[in-house]
Amino acid sequence: MLMTRRQKWEDLRQYTSRDQLQDAIQKSTASPVVEGQRSVCWKIFLYFETTDQSQWTAKLRASRGSYESMRQHFLQAIEHQDEIDDPLNDTVDVSTPSRDLASGLQMSCLTRH
User: What share of the chain is helix, strand, coil (3-state, %, to 5)?
Assistant: First the structure.
């Protein structure tokens, strides 16, 4: 019997704890995993602390906010390449401390030999 998406979600609501859900998955061929909710079950076991779906939205929202904050911080160089001082880039004619240092080191190496 094919279940609609709504029926699958309703079927998942009957489990009030992760232990109940785990028992159902292990003991039944008609478990939520078999009925097309594998990814939801994994998320319940690995991420959510409860099977109560009303709490999932807040947890997901907080998680997405954290992800976005870390993404902006760590991928800043990719999104704003023109603002990053790259001492290896000789094509830009802008004086920066790292370029001045590199230029000075090059000059001292050339004058010593």
Answer: 70, 0, 30
